[in-house]
Structures are given as C-alpha cells and as structure tokens.
Amino acid sequence: MSSQDIDSIVQEQGIANNQSQITGTSTPAEDVEEQRAQDIFRDLKEDAKWGKDADTQKKAIRGLSKMGTPALSSLMEILLVLIPGEIKSYCQDAIEKLDSLQQSEMKKNTKTIK
After folding, report:
1. What is the spatial distance between Cα 88 and Cα 72, in angstroms, rounded to a whole number?
2. Which ranges in the chain belong to alpha helices (H)?
3. How many domains does the chain contain in total?
4. pTM of the full predicted structure?
C-alpha cells in the first residue's frame, strides 16, 4: 500500500492528520499500517490452518515464521489443528527454529545485562 493510498483512506475517514480526533499516540497512517499488518497476520494464520493445498499452508507457515518469535504462539496453535503429515512436520520445524532463536536471544540479552 502506497503512502498515497494511505492518505486517501485517512481523508475518506475525515481524520486527515487531525491528532485531536485520534485516541492514542499513533497517526492515522500508522493505524492503517498496523491494521494491515494484523490482517496479513490473520490471513497467514488461516491459510496455515485451512489452506487449500500443502503449498499454500507451507507458504503461510513460512510467512509466519519470518515474523519471528511473536508468531511462535500462533504456530503452536496451528500445530494443534494440523493432522499428522508433511505440513505438521513443517510447522514443527518452524517452531523449533523460532524456539532456538528465542533462546539464543535470551542468552544474548542475559550476557548484555551482566
């Protein structure tokens, strides 16, 4: 989505850069981007669970795993609904990689604090 698209959405909503009409600290454009990111996340999660074929499910799992450790709980949720097979193994591998990444980040942060 281009910044021009975002600006037109903001103007249509009648909040064109008027901070007094917005609750919170984000701008209308940031709100739109945040909503877009949430929609993408939700769509990937749904495709991973209920995708029309294995390639669609793998692509969605790969997309979620690229989002890093915040997607870990969603991948675990997805794992619960998948039937045993190739896709479930693919999801388990993604979870293991993210879990390993999370643990190495924690170790790195612990060393930094000391």
Report:
1. 15
2. 3-12, 28-50, 54-65, 72-81, 86-113
3. 1
4. 0.66
